[in-house]
Amino acid sequence: MSVFTLTEAEREAALLxxxxxxxxxxxxxxxxxxxxxxxIGSAGPYARVADLPWLPVxxxxxxxxxxxxxxxxxxxxxSSGTTGQTPSRVYLDREAAATQPRxxxxxxxxxxxxxxxxxxIVDSRSVTRDPTLSARxxxxxxxxxxxxxxxxxxxxxxxxxGVSVERFLARHGGEPFLIFGFTFMTWLHLRGLGLDLxxxxxxxxxxxxxxxxQAVDNxxxxxxxxxxxxLTRVHDFYGMVxxxxxxxxxxxDGDGLYCPDFANVVIRDPETWEEAPPGVPGLIEVxxxxxxxxxxxVLLTEDLGVVHGVDDGAWPxxxxxxxxxxxxxxxxxxxxxxxxxxx
Amino acid sequence: xxHLDRLRYVFxxxxxxxxxxxxDDLEYRAIPQWDSLAHMALVAAIEDEFDTMxxxxxxxxxxxxxxxVLLLEKHGADAAS
Lengths: 343, 81
Description:
By secondary structure, chain A is α/β, with parallel strands linked by helices. Chain A contains 10 helices and 14 strands. Chains A and B meet through helix 4 and helix 5 of A and helix 2 and helix 3 of B.
């Protein structure tokens, strides 16, 4: 039942034909994507996943990239990412909209099981009511599908509601329960509770920027939450709206993010665009078979990352970390080329 | 009330629809009231009404009233009512 089963060689063999087929499907059905492949002279045949042409993720902010006719668009997802930026627009048909939550559920099953667990959310209920639905609200809402008896740890003003949390723990604290929140929020609020969270499974996401400013890294985060709350089952994840349904999930030992069987990462040297070997940081390219209605199956992110090892951890395949965002000026070179190609 | 009528009632209450609304052909996200937040409230209300537990995959697959009927029957609701 787990989707963390394929070694790197098996994954490459499984993904290559499916990603090649998606490249051709999007080339036929998405004119701007076709234009980009023409402009960069990418025609195949593609011998390796790393040979496939990638799209810079920011193109979803500036271009309408879809591979289904307008009348088949069932949902348009938007996310601003960083405040002030133009939102990305991701077009899902019925099939893609139905597949993505199933694959997300399959990915999380390895740590959560089949059951919807009682769920403590380290946020305010109001984030889910925001009509425009911020990235944060959308994230909370998406995760809420994996829980029951949803309890928000913060009040409408963002203050910790210790009593609510105590009541939640009185009801559920002796059985497995789910805790979800953004990395910084969980760090800020969980440690102050002084409560036993040892039966909890903590899922968190959102990045380390704010914690890095306080010189808190993942090892310190895990150590302190373990010591102060009894939390031993802690899983960070990395994902983006442009590849909705695909997340890279931290393994049980905290030794990196792992790829589900339908996805992988390629770390690229930002100077040469060649694949960087394990241990050498570069830009993160994410590949996934889920984007069928829009050309998001091979995306170059603006995040820096590093592969720590391959087939050497708790789950097979690559394990990697996200190191932070590439400074803006550096990212401009590649996406300008693509921007002009589709203009 | 049959389990179908009870399910119709749960749908109307959870989605904030009028008492006489016809819900038999409803599909997830086809009306503004049945959004992602309402879906969770609906699933919780079905669990309470029929004293059952709905798993993650079942919740994701419950994309229409008709699918909710099938789900309930799988959980044995037809035998109980």
